[in-house]
Amino acid sequence: MSNRLPVDRVVDEAGQATWRPSPGGLVTALQPVMRAEDGVWVGWAGVAGEEVEPFEADGISILPVALSEQELQEYYEGFSNDTLWPLYHDVIAQPSYHREWWDSYVRVNRRFADAAAGAAAPGAVVWVHDYQLQLVPAMLREVRPDLVIGFFNHIPFPPYGIYSQLPWRRQIIDGLLGADVIGFQRVADAGNFSRAVRRLKGYETRGPIIEVPIDTDDPESGSHRHVTTNRHGGLVRTVLARAFPISIDAEAYQELARRPAIQERAREIREELGNPETIMLGVDRLDYTKGIGHRLKAFGELLRDGRLDVEKVTLVQVASPSRERVETYRQLRDEIELTVGRINGDYATLGHTAVAYLHHGYPKEEMVALYLAADVMLVTALRDGMNLVAKEYVATRVDEDGVLVLSEFAGASDELRQALLINPHDIEGLKDAMLQAIAMPKRDRVRRMRALRKKVLTNDVARWSASFLEALTRSAHGDHPLQDAPVNRR
Ligand code: G6P
């Protein structure tokens, strides 16, 4: 289950409805898994006010959940993307708290839970994805205690001092604790969650295990799957909360990168840009968490100070349109486009653009060609759950060349240690890293890229989903790892 289906419904001017692959890393990550499983994908079809019948797409059974225009505004644009999104990303933007949005979030989560409850076979495994659906695990457990329920949070889980702002902080924790296994991108995210559970609920946690007390007056209490006695003699069900860093279908990227037509397209891109010595690339959803402004500032200053020459270096920035009806995103677009315009106005020449700015989404083939053309990849997120673009760049570089500049605030930096790791708030440091990347000798580039590729090719998305599902199945059989681990105190 995820807010977005793997396909979006689009209605063209003639009123004809078609489906196209939907945006975002989540879909990229799950499609290969779902194809291989005999599963049903429950999600929203991407348009408001339309009831869509269940259907099949690319061998996946799809069960659409309808949202009204008002729910789209309150549950999706409001609570999901203007409350939870900024709150969970370190309040880079100010979260808005509105009680009507919360009510709508509860209502829509209930609808998703009911849809899954109706579709799941007895004892089935249900895997719920991301921050839009955090209440679903408990809602589902309530009506279907036979199900094995997993939840994966694709975005960061914030430190307690930030999380505790949320007026509905306890309800969200209760919602998530309905799952048997709760997955996070980073060890730090899982730690933040466990701490919030201790502080807000007073439950004990041991290593990755959370002990949720069972209300023995509840007639359903006997139906819980893995019940055990805690050190105080009380009955608890155990929930596993730990990191499962997500990845990509690395082999699919490699395969595209080896195609002669795509390599030819990469050469063509270089040519179209006027054959600069160095191409730097940024690829992001147009989101304030991505640090696009910081990247542009650093690049602009390097041109201003004459440390970079516009005839030799071009920055290509792909910014795919996202959440365009949310005010913060509109403002961001204006800011970024103003900055790009200024940099080009000040430094471009007739023959050489400084920043080639593209406000579009592109098919995978074109993205791979861009990655192959890019000497330096810039991932400068201020906060990011994982950042799959970093992994896509690495998987694409079958030539073992190219330099990845990677923010330490992206989850990917836990694994991709051989990237040039940067703090995007430190503009001087970012400028130095850009220059270091441009000047890096081939031997060093290859050494780093080889190490990065090994990580990404080994830990691909198939391994990610297999390890999550394995933990889920084990927990369903009452296997409680680290039962004897010491109690966490803080
Ligand atoms: C992130 C989130 C996904 C979301 C995607 C695109 O990757 O983790 O849950 O689907 O962004 O955002 P959108 O709001 O367009 O679904």
Automatic annotation (TrEMBL):
Its EC number is 2.4.1.15. Gene3D superfamilies: Glycogen Phosphorylase B. GO terms for molecular function: alpha,alpha-trehalose-phosphate synthase (UDP-forming) activity. The keyword Transferase applies. The keyword Transferase applies. GO terms for biological process: trehalose biosynthetic process. Keywords: Glycosyltransferase, Transferase. Pfam families: Glyco_transf_20. It catalyses: D-glucose 6-phosphate + UDP-alpha-D-glucose = alpha,alpha-trehalose 6-phosphate + UDP + H(+). InterPro entries: Glyco_trans_20, Trehalose_OtsA. Pathway: Glycan biosynthesis; trehalose biosynthesis. It comes from the Bacteria. Probably involved in the osmoprotection via the biosynthesis of trehalose. Catalyzes the transfer of glucose from UDP-alpha-D-glucose (UDP-Glc) to D-glucose 6-phosphate (Glc-6-P) to form trehalose-6-phosphate. Acts with retention of the anomeric configuration of the UDP-sugar donor. NCBIfam families: trehalose_OtsA. Homotetramer. Belongs to the glycosyltransferase 20 family. This is Trehalose-6-phosphate synthase. It comes from Leifsonia shinshuensis. The lineage of its organism: Bacteria, Bacillati, Actinomycetota, Actinomycetes, Micrococcales.
